[in-house]
Amino acid sequence: MNKKRIAIIGSTGSIGTQALAVIKAHNELFTAEILAAYNNVELLIKQALDFQPNAVVIVNEEKYHLLADALAGQPIKVYAGRQALTQVVAWDSVDLLLSAMVGFAGLEPTLTALEAGKPVALANKETLVAAGEIVIRTALEKRAPLIPVDSEHSAIFQCLLGEQSAIEKIWLTASGGPFWKTPATDMQHVSKQDALKHPNWSMGPKITVDSATMMNKGLEMIEAHWLFDLSAAQIEVVVHPQSIVHSMVQFVDGSVKAQCGLPDMKLPIQYALSFPERLPMNAAKLNFTDAMQWEFMPADREKFPCLQLAYDALARGGNIPCAMNAANEIAVQAFLEDKINFLQIAEIIADSMNAVDYKIKPNLQDLLVTDNNARQIAQQNIARKK
After folding, report:
1. How many Cα atoms are found within 13 Å in the side-chain-facing hemisphere of 338?
2. Among 107, 106, 101, 329, CA closest to 206
3. Is 155 helix (H, G, I), strand (E, B) or coil?
4. Are 327 and 312 in contact (CB under 8 A)?
5. Using an 8 Å Cβ cutoff, are 33 and 54 in contact?
6. Which tens digits make up the pLDDT trace of 244-286?
7. Residue 162: CB partners within 8 Å, gap ≥ 6?
8. 335 or 102, higher pLDDT
């Protein structure tokens, strides 16, 4: 069998680096065809030297010369900018795109790959949150497989394989982040350092803060709506602090199927790359002879208003989820830069959702405008709060 040639956008992030570990562990099956990063040129250079891809892309054009100079003499094509990123994913030499670039920046290259009929392993939840209808329609029209990488959506995907019966609901599990036991009255005092201490997962700062606010679960709820054609009423978020049950599917007869495993993102990444096959993985595995307890609790949407905002955005539909996502990206960055406090993240998002012009049937250009406008509104509100 020919090696599967993988393009990874977001190769220097948490998902991208773990994907490269999977490729290295199964180098007889996979090869890194394209590596792309937004800003981390130092790590991208190291990855390029280690994996010898056909091409690399740095989105920040100011860092092109650093990349080109470091790879001079290597048989690696070097590009920079958003346009280059969007073009390379459609190359004939790409067998699968792993879309792992954080945020709205992943939308256009993901759409381009789907339009070219490429299978996409999707680890960028913002793509479906901002433009779910367009993305799903493109995938269906081009018959391009869309394979979820998030552990929760991978779990649902695996539970549905071979099933033909109707889904009654899904149970979308959440770790609860670092604050699920924190009293609501103390939430105003949490610090950036507190928010970045996730109890179970090692992730980048943006997604770690999203987990702390539970916006991450809100984004995943909207993503599940599009991936599995479910209403919001069919998607129940439940806090499961141990992060062993990655999600569950409940069928009309009351049966529930769950996918379980230790919290290790390499498992869903590897499954997405190898699908429909399963490959051996040298990692710790569940041992049911070990004493353990699994807890499940309802998610508190009052204590975590970002989760409620996601349900509100899906209910309104149109371009509102796009506005919510854009404002969240700006608010989280402002929190990481100590410009706002933790509770103000939700306030910034709500203000932007209410202020953008509503479009019930947005096209891609409408969404690009919405994204830009929501970011501007969020930045203005952050400046006022400072």
Report:
1. 2
2. 329
3. helix
4. no
5. yes
6. 999 999 999 999 999 999 989 999 999 999 999 999 998 889 9
7. none
8. 335
The CA–CA distances, whole Å, from 42 to 11, 36, 339 equal: 12, 12, 28
Q: What are phi and psi of 276, to 5 degrees?
A: -95, 10
pTM (predicted TM-score): 0.92
**Chain mean position to CA 332:** 15
How many C-beta atoms lie closer than 10 Å to residue 233's C-beta? 8
Long-range pairs of 59-65 with CB within 8 A, sequence gap ≥ 24: 59/85, 59/105, 63/39
DSSP string, 313-378: HHHH-TTHHHHHHHHHHHHHHHHHTTSS-TTHHHHHHHHHHHHSPP-SS--HHHHHHHHHHHHHHH
Question: Which one-letter amino acid corresponds to residue 360?
Answer: I
Contact by Cβ (8 Å): 262, 286: yes
> Please, which residues bridge with residue 96 across strands?
6
Beta-strand ranges (E) seen in 64-186 are: 77-80, 96-99, 120-122, 146-148, 167-174
pLDDT tens by residue, 36-80:
999 999 999 999 999 999 999 999 999 999 999 999 999 999 999
Rg of the chain's alpha carbons, rounded to an integer? Answer: 20
Residue type, 23: I
Contact between residue 283 and residue 323 where contact means Cβ atoms under 8 Å apart: no
Angle ∠(304,308,310) on CA atoms, nearest 5: 115
- Amino acid identity of residue 18, one-letter, is Q
Record the tokens describing residue 360, joined without a space: 């019930």
Sheet with 297-298, edge to edge strand ranges: 256-260, 245-251, 167-174, 235-239, 297-298
- Is the Cβ–Cβ distance between 231 and 221 less than 8 Å? no
Using DSSP's 3-state secondary structure scheme, residue 91 falls into coil
Round to whole Å and give the CA distance between 247 and 238.
9
Q: What is the DSSP string of 2-21?
A: PPEEEEEETTTSHHHHHHHH
Strand, helix or coil at 290?
coil
Cβ(290)–Cβ(244) below 8 Å: no
CATH numbers and ranges of domains, the chain:
4-148 (3.40.50.720), 150-264+284-302 (no CATH), 317-386 (1.10.1740.10)
Q: How far apart are CA 234 and CA 45, in angstroms?
A: 45
| Cα dihedral sign, 117-118-119-121 | negative
